[in-house]
Write a structure and sequence with these properties.
Blueprint lengths: L4 E12 L2 E12 L3 E6 L5 H8 L7 E6 L2 E2 L5 H8 L2 E4 L11 H12 L4 H14 L16 H12 L6 E5 L7 H18 L2 E5 L3 H7 L2 E6 L2 E6 L1 H4 L5 H8 L1 H11 L1
Parallel strand pairs: 3-8, 3-9, 6-7, 7-8
Antiparallel strand pairs: 1-2, 1-4, 4-5, 9-10
Helix pairs in contact: 3-4, 3-5, 4-5, 6-7, 7-10, 9-10
The protein binds adenosine-5'-diphosphate and magnesium ion.
Length: 257
């Protein structure tokens, strides 16, 4: 397995006033992998994502991309980094007043200088890649199903040809069939486009189906990170309950049939 590290989180501390969310958290993301992040509600999964993205300043520790400290980058380097990653935020807010095509064009308008017609062409291509029909381009978010909205948000996250994709609970709120279809899409795209994917999820099926490794957040840090099958018998109480509880066992049984 490749030991080529793309993102390194070292000794991260995150706090809101007296409330410490992360303490001495370490995590490596390998180039080309699909890394799942799990953890109880409120354990700081989204805060971790926001810290990597630079949306929340670490209260201690370092985040490195390709070995470079984000904290030491100048604004031009930062801007370049921001165009290397695409993000599908939790509750993946599309702009409600823009149609799908305009939503997907938004990052292009912000980051690149090119004719509108070319932006439209690129946006339409990303919409197709995300598994939406061309007819979806002119629809508004309120006119889409939950699954279609996720796909539109995914198309927007891919607008700038990122090599890293962050997904915060992308299948939450989808029915199991919609969730499985979305998982396959992520797997296909990650292979076709050579993406590194970091996916926060509660969805055990996603963890089994598409994640190369799973990182578990507990007790303010990454308590364990390994391929899912190596975590099944982990002694930590939350990890044990998560994988060996009824839902965990049902998901595993589904894989063995
Ligand atoms: N902007 C904020 N201000 C204060 N506390 C916050 C803020 N964002 C997150 N938190 C707290 O940080 C903890 C981790 O939140 P979060 O990362 O959203 O959890 P989750 O693992 O469910 O994604 C929670 O206790 C949350 O209340
Ligand atoms: Mg969250």
């Amino acid at each position: 397995m490749s030991e080529d590290i793309l993102i390194s989180v070292r000794g991260l501390r995150s706090a809101f006033g007296p409330h410490v969310v992360h303490e001495n958290l370490d995590l490596d993301v390998r180039r080309g992998e699909i890394l799942g992040i799990v953890g109880g509600s409120g354990t700081g999964k989204t805060v971790l994502l926001n810290s990597i993205l630079g949306l929340k300043q670490p209260d201690g520790g370092e985040i490195l991309l390709d070995g470079m400290r984000l904290s030491e980058m100048n604004s031009a380097q930062r801007r370049k980094v921001d165009s290397r990653w695409g993000v599908l935020f939790q509750n993946g807010a599309l702009f409600t007043s823009l149609n799908v095509l305009e939503n997907v064009m938004a990052p292009l308008r912000e980051h690149v200088d090119m004719p509108i017609s070319l932006m439209e062409e690129i946006a339409a291509m990303k919409i197709g890649l995300s598994g939406l029909e061309p007819g979806a381009c002119s629809r508004f978010p309120s006119e889409l199903s939950g699954g279609m909205r996720k796909r539109a948000a995914l198309a927007r996250a891919l607008a700038l040809d990122p090599d890293i994709l962050f997904l915060d609970e992308p299948t939450a709120g989808l029915d199991p069939i919609g969730a499985a279809a979305f998982d396959s899409l992520i797997l296909e795209l990650s292979r076709a486009l050579g993406l590194t994917v970091v996916m926060i999820t509660h969805d055990l099926d996603s963890l089994y189906e598409i994640c190369d490794r799973v990182a578990v957040l507990a007790d303010k840090k990454v308590e364990a990170v390994a391929p899912i099958r190596e975590l099944l018998n982990h002694p930590h109480p939350w990890i044990h309950e998560y994988f060996q509880g009824p839902r965990g066992r049902a998901a595993l049984a589904g894989k063995e049939n």
